[in-house]
Amino acid sequence: MKILLSTIHPCRGDPVTGMAPKVTSAAIAGLLLAAGSALAAPPGTTIFGVYDPEGSFAADPEVSIEHVFLPWEGVDLDTLHTADEYIRQRNRSMLVTIEPWVWGAPYEAETLRRDVLAGRHDATMRRVCTVLGTLESPVTVRWAHEMDNPNGHFPWSMWNPEDHIAAYRRMVEVCRSVAPDLSFMWSPAGEEGLEPYFPGEDVVDVIGLSVFGAQEFQRLHLGGEQSFTEVLAPRYNRVSDFGKPIMVAELGFVGDRAYMDEWFNTVRQTEDRFPELTAVIYFNSQEVWPWPHDFGLPDWRNSAQRPE
């Protein structure tokens, strides 16, 4: 069964069974038909991008990057051309997060690791990259993100670093064989101990990080509120020595008005503090994985729709 790219949440598998849900990951194909309420980018000069399934930033000329999520199986890849048209009309580039979920029966992390390393998914990746290579928008591929994330959400996370490196390099090689003009983002969550996962400067054009701030969670479980710079700094420092441009590939924040104003007014104005930070990409959707300590699902859409 092939599924059209749609405007729903990124694809996530069940953390226990490893099964991917029967929905596709988000893209922006549907935005050509209906856009949500208009929102605007935070102030500043750092390049701004969005994962925006509701089309709330469709009319904002400040947006330079459109973030698209897709699983690498079970998707009608032809609809990427619709996404490409939407992006070209707005003079944006495309960041494509390719999530290596496998459809059907429960599929454990060990099986995925073994099959990727054995080349059993080469054809899958080749099929995706062949289509990406035909698009007119500039495309950056982000494969198997947050490989350093220990929360158990992704079957491609917390592999032996040598296996991740071999798998990542293999996927880049497959992509380049059919689409030599693609760029590649290596995108850890930013956790302590990420360094051994770096796959090599020859297969990384840009580094992505995940930066989220939930005021109440920080108060209850992290010893107090943290600003954008306080959350980003240790993650940035862990990757800055690799000598690559750095982006915040996923950004969200939620809290009271003062907390959100501080984040909103800072995320694009940190050039002096983080000179290698080239872009921040806002995740304009509700969280799809429950946070620890029964915190629930933060709604990152509030990052732009701040409370009065």
TrEMBL record:
Keywords: Glycosidase, Hydrolase, Signal. Gene3D superfamilies: Glycosidases (3.20.20.80). The keyword Signal applies. Residues 1-40 form the signal peptide. The keyword Secreted does not apply. InterPro entries: GH, GH26_dom, Glyco_hydro_26. Residues 15-308 form the GH26 domain. PROSITE patterns: GH26. One of its GO terms (molecular function) is mannan endo-1,4-beta-mannosidase activity. The active site is at E146 (proton donor), E250 (nucleophile). GO terms for biological process: substituted mannan metabolic process. Belongs to the glycosyl hydrolase 26 family. This is Endoglucanase.
